[in-house]
Structure prediction request, 526 residues.
Amino acid sequence: MKLTPEEQDMLDGKHGKAVRKSMEILTTLGEIFEAECMVDVCSVQVAGVSYANLGEAGLEFLSEMAEDGKVKVLTTLNPAGMDRENWQALGIDEEFAKNQIRVIDAFAKMGIITTCSCTPYLIGNVPHFGQHVAWAESSAVCYANSVIGARTNREGGPSALASALTGKTPKYGYHIDENRHVQVLVKVNAQVKGTDGFGVLGKAIGDRLIKLGKNIPFIAGIPSATVEELKSFCASIATYGGTALFHMEGITPEFDRYPKPNGNVFEINQEDLKKARSELVDDGLEVDFVSIGCPQASIYEIEKIANLLKGKKVKKEFWITTARPIKRIADEAGYSKIIEDAGAKFAADTCCVVAPIKGHFKGMMVDSAKACYYGRATNKFKVKIGTIEECVEEAVK
Amino acid sequence: MKLNGRRIYKGVAEGEAIVTKDGISFYGGVDPDTGKVVEVGHELEGQTITGKILVFPTGKGSTVGSYTLYRMKKNNTAPAAIVNRQIDTIIAVGCIISEIPCVDKIDVNEIKTGQRIVVNGSEGTVEVK
Prediction:
């Protein structure tokens, strides 16, 4: 791998210990994936924040990096295992809370903005078309590459941190034009609507991509999609298909940029969606937990929930997971009061995927296909997908 | 016998080989406090990898595995070196942050459990004694 004199100095330890370790990570990955050189990044999203996943060792590594490491570019943080202000009301134990704060403090010491959000693009970490970034968090990676047209590989926690502390990433994979070409054509012959509907579509396509061993689909037949629908779709297709980039006709910025392969077409019709949806509803489910905000809820989704909950009382545990800056907007707009008066709870800084809530509930209803996957895998919940309206109905029933 | 591979992380280690044909997930698959493989049904289930040269085809599982390897190094339960057929990001990053010598692109079928081997992570070689 060819390094500039400055990059070589970083690797040689002339910029401190954390930068040396970071460059070791980046050059090694670069050599494994046969990158010719580094590329400068303008934005980083770091994952690996929940203490439940990091443990004491992860925390020790972060503390060591924080001794002399400082971010070179705008860097935001993935969700933590709890709401930093409201953790007690959400049933998080004190020992966990103490350790989670230590993790967040280590990130803060490095100059990372501790937003604790999986939707950096909703809270000010927004690259523009064509920019190189180093993002972890599979749903955000997919959104950045596909919806924004920025360029990132699927980073893990340590490699994203290494990019934050150096401002560099090895130039391979999705940073290079030829690796962003369409591999398979998908024709959607069905009506797709709502965050749940786009999540179901993401699963239907993702499952097929895994079977075909293909990564980059060109999706035709979707006349329009909202930011929230795309957010849900990205999370789902990344979860079920491992997809980091898709092109969607008339919607994503690079849809017309690359040649289409001959053959390699599959269709998604109403029946396929029905089947995918039925796979996101478990038999014998009794809902005792409703959660909206996977990926974390936008202000528009919160407004919608507030309108649906106005004057009602929830009878089941109901969480809205969102980024703290979005929660603040909801506070100012008066939505938070309506939602909390109805007995629903905000869980800011976190989400139902990373919070340590295994054993707290049995049956979870969500509007997110990704949340279904992790609800089953990590928390052993029975799950059910529905529209936001159906989720609210279930909560007040 | 000397096998030539690719250097992943520098350093030289000599030890007893422990070889498996199964992939390894350090997160959830290995107990970082005891150094034992705990994944149910794994070829090495119940065996200790501490201080040995761990030889396996490739890594699998959660990216948190890099941190598990780091925790093993701090607990003195880590393997002395790692040899892979094909490195993956999780194992590579784990070796770098934990400073464990590591080599890949090695035909792992050439190595048998119990053999004494020397891993040279700086040169990318594995010597079977």
